[in-house]
Amino acid sequence: MQRSAVTQIKVRKVAAWPITFYRSAVGKKWVMAITGIMLMGFVLSHMVGNLKLYLSREEINLYGEALREIPGHLLPRTVFLWTIRLGLIGAFALHIHAAVSLTRLNRKARPVAYQSERDYIAASFAARTMRWSGVIVGLYVVFHLLDLTAGTANPDFVRGDPYNNLVRSLERPVVGIAYIVANLALGIHLFHGAWSIFQSLGVNNPRFNNARKRFAQGFAALIVIGNVSFPVAILAGVIKQSCEGTPIEEPCAGSGAFGEKN
Amino acid sequence: MSAPKMHIKVTAWRQSGPDAPGAFKDYDVNDVSPDMSFLEMLDTLNERLIENNEEPIAFDHDCREGICGSCGMMINGVPHGPERGTATCQLHMRKFNDNAHITVEPFRAAAFTINKDLSVDRSALDRIVEAGGYITAPTGSAPDANLIPVPKAVSDTAMDAAQCIGCGACVAACPNSAAQLFTSAKLAHLNLLPQGQAERWDRTIDMVETMEMYFGSCTNFRECEAACPKEISVDFIAMLNKDYVKSQLKQRRLAGQVFP
Questions:
Q1: Chain B partners of A102 at a C-beta cutoff of 8 Å?
Q2: A238, exposed or middle or buried, with CB in 10 Å at 0-12, 13-18, 19+?
Q3: Residue range B41-63: average pLDDT?
Q4: Using one digit for the tens of pLDDT, what is the confidence trace for A129-159?
Q5: CB A94 within 8 A of CB A39
Q6: Domain B6-113 listed as CATH 3.30.450.20
Q7: Contacts of B210 in chain A (CB under 8 A)
Q8: What is the pLDDT of residue B260?
Q9: Is 3.40.190.10 the CATH number for B123-254?
């Protein structure tokens, strides 16, 4: 029988199983799902921790200090924090590598685009803009680290005083609005990603399939509302830097959203 | 008393061969009965083209009752047209308005070579089935139907997957040209049933990795499910993903072992 030649976009190679697994697109999606869960865990705990901003300067500064002290005297200071950080950097790198490599494969899979207008029926806005929302979030994370971790993008940065750094950074309108936009992009990314995780890992059962979508909606909404509230509260003046000159060790009555206003 | 005739404006992709350049061309089709199928409308147009000594529009078709999977084209940007759960041959012209403007284009993917006009070579899908979409069993007289009990729910789900007619609409609909829905259906109708268990993990690895030689990857757009003339669920894709990960682990565990 004459076999017609079919255009091949990838060569099938045999290697040790983790390599073969990651080389496959299904394996890459699995890695994206696992790293996605890790990053979602980070995003959620980061948002919850930052809610301390509403309590007082002392509370959020102690929270930042506590992160460095985990797990008490069992490990030297910041060892645990750096372990988590390196894990997250690894997850971030793998997530991006898999996304870039899959995007390139998918471009190859349709070299000639449809010449007439496509009509999408099911694909949501979030699903179709994953690459863009991902790029926005990636750039935002880089700026965020320079702004509030390294402090190079924040002229008023004081090491060990996250309250001051947050307020001073986000009260700049351009920065505040950029944070809002980036968190909306993050929400859109999570809306599709949090549902996709279940599908990529094969967590599927007609009894709870509807809940998968609701979980993604709820999670994305929770993160967006929480994270957007910080720049909004600071831009609106609900939270302001009212502790200028007060040493970090001393409590400051006018800080947070509930403290006495000066 | 027959229904009044419709007038349809068709913009069709014309391409004389796989490597030839193609372009859209406009045609007016009169005398279209609302009871015609979409393919019969194209037949009507082709008859007129032949009468005028023009080249008829090539398109794939065979059974014309939605079970062979031969027909399939992008109709106004959707595989098999606007009607859900039907193949192109089951789409009736009454689903369109009189004087409708319909654009038809072949399915496009790296693995789908255009033979001519709307006819596409989909043999990449055959490669996936050849890689493991069968059970290796000696043929002979049919075994007793009650010899292997299968729970009702399992057989129903396997039958849902087995409905796949291999038309390639899932690939055409997917923005990534992924063949995940096709492959997952071909895997599931065997992997769910007792007869398919012996080769389950080899089959999953071979079919998934063969699929990836030709097609893109799944990003959960769900366009395939919406385009599928058999309305096969993306739940089967979740099963493919799970089985592929499992099979990778199992293959490793069994490497070099011949004892149970």
A1: 217, 219
A2: middle
A3: 97
A4: 999 999 999 999 999 999 999 999 988 898 8
A5: no
A6: no
A7: 12
A8: 45
A9: no
